Amino acid sequence: MTNLIEDSLKETSDGFIHYSDGLTEVGLLTSAVIEPQKSINNEEYDVIIIGAGFAGLIAARELSLRGRKVLIIEAKDRIGGRTLTTQVENRNFEIGGTWIHWSQPHIWTEITRYGFSLTESKGAAATRMSVLLDNGTKLKEVPMADHWVAMGKAMEKYSDVDGFQGRTVMPLPHTPFTSNEAVKMYDQLSMQDRLNQVINSLDDNNEEIIQMLLSLLSMNMQGNIAQGGFIDHLRWWALGDYDMNRMFEKLGRYKIKEGTSALARAILNDCQKVTLLLSTSVKSIDRTSRNSVIIRTQTDELLIGRTAIVTVPLNALKKIEFMPSLELQKQEAITIGQCPGGIKFWVKLEEPVGNWFGFAPYPNPITMAYTDDEDGFFIVGFGPDGILDIQNIDAVEKELNKLLPNVKVKYVLGHDWRNDPFVLSTWSWYKPGQMSSSLMALQKSEPPVFFASGDISNGWRGFIDGALESGLTSVRHVQQYLTKCST
């Protein structure tokens, strides 16, 4: 592809910024918007990749470097999927997927490959912490160190289903079905079911610690923990080395300094013989022929490939018609979908608050928030089930004031991923029973159609690392299939 100018910023239709003076801007400036190309009628590709998130981009790079002719079709006007870096006042904001860690193998390989660096969300290691109690009516400021240690012990009790901190259930989190029977058993529990089992043993029923635990659990799945599968918590716990401090560092402390969109562009820039179509959504995928796939776009353009890789988010897959229908178990999983998640937003305050962390249990509109910079001008916040209208700056300020009294918000920015028609979810979290019943079915290839997504990976499902893992896996399967067809 042509060389990409890393510092060029163009406006995507995704996202918004709402200022305190009432001005609202729809769409955000980002380097993820690039010049699209046009497909050539009747041209046949080796691989058509649907979706230009990290799963699709890594698949396109690796297949093109193996000499495959690749077409990427992306419904949005940009690349990056559920990641998006925007700049406001010369500062990067990550609107979607954000945090990474050097123990995440696939993303760290890319960081090394392209020479990127890390920056830190300072509030993730704050000394000052607020907890909202009594159904959101009582605010208490507590010392971070003491309460964090106590909450770590509560999390250990919550996670310790086997006397070994879950190690016998999830000994190899990148191979999640190693202990298949144990996984099936604990996958039947919701997160609330597990809490009910241990609630009376949590730190002598210390209400502050329990509320902090509830806040963290709800934030992790971005909703009512009665709707979230406990096995997904146990997977995160295992990936976090069975330790709350390690888990949280991997989940929410370190970011790509150059931005996730810069990484997406770097991967795309390494592609060879790849055509990219933006603002092109898919209506149907016809795999009637074993030798080709016909993709019909919403504008009824027909695109032909020997194979296709579908990287569409799980909750949006039901919008695509497959002909013939997919295998029943996969189709049922697509129909049910995963937890839709909640909201994430960024604010700039009028005055700094220092390094700060706040907890509020479900169903508070904000369940967790913390400062991102050294001084505490910038806060990232999370809430469940889309309860808070993050496009309403007054509503955001009102809810933040419950955790930080008298703060004034200069602007708020974000994107409504739950209601984005091409996404319909935030990060991946499965419902009770869904991992053991559906994950392998969702991953299964139905040649000449293959599947890849951060929503169906084995390890860091729901993270950039998981999307890369899934994309690389699909490359292996497609290569094997195309090689076999050529012999």
TrEMBL record:
Locations listed in the record: Mitochondrion outer membrane
Binding positions (substrate): F382
Family: Belongs to the flavin monoamine oxidase family.
Pfam families tied to this protein: Amino_oxidase
Keyword set includes Flavoprotein: yes
EC number: 1.4.3.-
Gene Ontology terms for molecular function: monoamine oxidase activity; primary methylamine oxidase activity
Full protein name: Amine oxidase
Major localisation: mitochondrion
UniProt cross-references to SUPFAM superfamilies, sorted A to Z: FAD/NAD(P)-binding domain
